[in-house]
Amino acid sequence: MTNTGYRALLAQREALEKQIEELRNAERGDAIEWIREQMALYEVKPEDLEPRSSRGPRKQSAPVAAKYRDPVSGATWSGRGKPPRWIAGQDRDTYAITD
Question: What are the residue boundaries of the DNA-binding protein H-NS-like C-terminal domain, all occurrences included (predicted)?
């Protein structure tokens, strides 16, 4: 039993990978030049390409005002997230803050 077909395919793959690498290296300069032209056209600076996380901390959003108040305990809820037990399954209009 011979593996000549398999070995021939491996040799072809190696030759193709070499051609791919050569073409990538040959065309890389043109690609970089095109990118530079586009960056100049749209006035994009290299620092504009950095991920947002490297630009500093994100601003924290302001706390959300409470929309509902428990008349018994005085606890409040903004209406976001899982409803607390005191309002779950009940008509929210009765707990709405009307200030």
Answer: 58-97
- Inter-residue contact 66 to 78 (CB < 8 Å): yes
Q: How many residues does the chain have?
A: 99
Over the chain, what HEC string results? CCCHHHHHHHHHHHHHHHHHHHHHHHHHHHHHHHHHHHHHHCCCCHHHHCCHHHHCCCCCCCCCCCCEECCCCCCEECCCCCCCCCCCCCCHHHHECCC
User: Rounded mean pLDDT of 83-93?
Assistant: 91
Structure tokens at 38: 């586009």
